[in-house]
Specification:
Blueprint: E1 2-6, E2 10-11, E3 14-15, H1 20-27, E4 32-35, E5 50-54, E6 59-64, E7 68-74, E8 79-82, E9 85-86, H2 92-102, E10 107-109, E11 112-115, E12 120-123, E13 137-141
Parallel strand pairs: 1-8
Antiparallel strand pairs: 1-2, 2-3, 4-5, 5-6, 6-7, 7-13, 8-9, 10-11, 11-12, 12-13
């Protein structure tokens, strides 16, 4: 599935700010609730957002109160596209150079990158983190996502 990214707005048909029900109607696929406010990721966690996984499509959706989408992360078979670039099907080294050109402030770590300018991140699987490897996942997030208390 081709998912065109609009920075800080959407990935494919999923828009940041959509409700859980709107996303279910839009995608129309089976999903697994990985965790939620009622089913925390670990015992005693009361701040984690909800997360659903649409496995057949390679889509993860993060929610925060009041059940609004704050981030969309995808892995293969999804095909996230930003400015014509296929983020999961292009070697990381090429993507890193490209992001450094379009966002001189891109944040680079050993396992990927995060562009606050565009609200996009790429993650590399441990052991597959060379410049020749392909990203494992791509994420589109709302402004302030990584600074929010619920993370």
């Amino acid at each position: 599935m081709h998912l065109v990214i609009t920075p800080y707005k959407s990935m494919g048909p999923i828009r940041l700010g959509m409700s859980r029900d709107e996303i279910h109607r839009e995608i129309g696929a089976e999903y697994e609730e990985l965790y939620s406010f009622d089913k925390p990721a670990f015992k005693g966690d009361t701040t984690a957002p909800g997360k659903e996984h649409f496995e057949d499509m390679g889509i993860f959706v993060d929610f925060c109160r009041p059940d609004m989408c704050v981030a969309v992360e995808v892995c293969r078979p999804a095909n996230p596209i930003f400015r014509g670039g296929r983020l999961l099907y292009t070697p990381y080294g090429e993507l890193l150079s490209w992001f450094k050109d379009i966002d001189p402030d891109v944040h680079v770590e050993s396992d990927g990158l995060r562009s606050r300018k565009f609200g996009i991140g790429l993650w590399l699987l441990e052991g597959h983190d060379t410049l020749d490897d392909f990203p494992e996942s791509a994420i589109v997030f709302e402004e302030g996502y990584y600074e929010k208390k619920y993370l």
